[in-house]
Amino acid sequence: MQKSNELMLKIIKFFYGIDGNLDEYRLGQIRRIGNNAFIMLFIYTLASNIVVSFIGLASPQNTLTTFIFVNILFSLVVITGYIGVAMNKLKLNEMATTEEKYPEKVSKLKKRALRKSIQFLNCQIKCNTHNPFLSIG
């Protein structure tokens, strides 16, 4: 049971971009933010399914493509935006560091940003080679 709890904490820290310790206050706020995001997604999913079921009757050709695009856009822009704004507002993603460890932290963040950008570029290249509808430019 302890190992699954540790794994869940690692996933939460990775998903929300938290470095360092995750105390009870931060964990509680992150759970609240996650619950709010889930509720928004649930309401959106119900409403969009009702709308799409009526639109699908009128023009079934473009409904699925539009539905998928709007769902991805909503998830990426609205939900990720909400999580980012809420994390910044509560200052949950700030790192406390000493002056001696500051260069080490900056170096670690630069490496992490480089790794993430390479992963994103790799994903874009794979999507473009496998899906003719997606293109970078």
Detailed description of the structure:
- By secondary structure, the chain is an all-alpha fold.
- 80% of the residues lie in helices and 0% in strands.
- The protein has 4 helices and no strands.
- The N and C termini lie far apart (48 Å).
- The mean pLDDT is 84.
Q: What is the residue-averaged pLDDT?
A: 84
Specify the structural class. Answer: mainly alpha
* Main beta-sheet strand count, sense and barrel state: none
Residue runs with pLDDT of under 50 for 5 or more positions: none
**SSE ordering:** HHHH
Number of helices: 4
How many angstroms separate the termini?
48 Å
The helix content, as a percent range, equals over 70%
The counted number of beta strands is 0
Q: How does the overall form come out from the CA principal axes?
A: extended
**Radius of gyration from the CA trace?**
20 Å
Proportion of β residues?
A: under 5%
Topology record:
Blueprint: H1 2-16, H2 24-58, H3 60-89, H4 102-130
Brief digest:
The protein is an all-alpha fold and 137 residues long.
List keywords for this structure.
137 residues, 4 helices, extended
